[in-house]
Amino acid sequence: MWQGSAVDLDAYLKRVNYEGDVAANLSTLRGLHTAHVDAIPFDNLDALLGRTAVPLDLGSVQEKIVRQGRGGWCLEQVVLMAAVLDRIGFTFTAFAARTRIRTGNKFGPALHVALCVQLDGERWLHDVSFGAYGPHEPIQLADNARLDGDWSFDLVREPTGERVLRFLRPEGPAELYGFTTDVRYPSDFELLNHFCLTHPRSPFNHRMVLQRTQPKVRHVLVGTVLTEIRPGEPATVRELDEAEALSAPEEIFGITLESRDLQALGKTLADP
Questions:
Q1: Is pLDDT at 26 greater than 60 in this prediction?
Q2: Domain 4-203 has what CATH class?
Q3: Which pTM was predicted?
Q4: Which InterPro entries match (predicted)?
Q5: What are 164-181's pLDDT values in tens digits?
Q6: pLDDT digit string (tens) for 121-171?
C-alpha cells in the first residue's frame, strides 16, 4: 500500500542529509524526522500557480521533492515519508487531523495527515509535514505526553476523545490540531488533495503558504506576512514588500523555482 519497494531510499537520505543508521527503531525514526523537517519545507506553490493537479503517486512526489529539491504540502510529504518508513520496515498507519492553528476552529475539515508508528509496544505521532509549527521529533502518542527541548510540545485529550497536539510557546500553548487515530488510506488522501487544490474555502489555493522548521529558527510565510519563531522568544511578524516576497522562497525556504514560475508568482503577488 505504501510502495516502500519503489522508493529511492539512497536519494531520499541524501536529500535530507541523513547519515545515521537505518533500522526500524526509535533512533532512526527520530533522526529521519529531524532531518526531514530541516531539509524539506511546506510548499503550496503548485496550487497557487494554477497547476491543474498536484499528483500524489510516489513517482511524481519523488521527482518533485527528492530530485527537483522542492517542498510539498502535507499530503505529498506523507506519501514520501510513508514509503521511506515502509522500505525500512516500520509498522504504521495514517490518520487525519483538524487544524486549529490560525483558525481556532475545532470543527473544520480534517485536511492534515500524519502517521502513527508502532514500536516496541508504544505508539508515536510522526508528523513531518505540519510546517513551522510542527514537532521536530516524534512524540509518544499517549495521554499527557510531552516533548521538551528548545521546541516543546504536548498532547492533551479532550472530553470528546480527540487528542490535541499543542506547541508550547512563551506566550502560551498554541493548539495545532485535534485528531483521532482512525485509519486513513492513500485513497482518502486523493479526496483531501482535491479539496485543497480546488475548493473555494481551501486555505492553500489562493495565497502563498511556505513553512520551514530548522534547529534554531522557524519561518511561516502566509501571503506576504512573514512570521519568525525562535526558541524561548515571542514570535515576530512583519509584512514583506513585493520584491522580498518574491525572493523569499529561495532565500528563506530554500526553494529554487524556474524562471517561468517566478514570473507567475510575481503576477499573483501583484494581483492577489
A1: yes
A2: alpha beta
A3: 0.94
A4: Arylamine_N-AcTrfase, Papain-like_cys_pep_sf
A5: 999 999 888 999 999 999
A6: 999 999 999 999 999 999 999 988 999 999 999 999 999 999 999 999 988
Cα 175 versus chain centre, distance: 16
CA dist., res. 74 & res. 145, Å (int): 23
Average pLDDT rounded to a whole number, residues 30-44: 96
Residue 99's DSSP bridge partners are 177
Which amino acid type is present at position 212? R
CA torsion through residues 193, 198, 204, 208, sign: positive
In this structure, are residues 138 and 116 in contact, taking their beta carbons and an 8 Å threshold? no
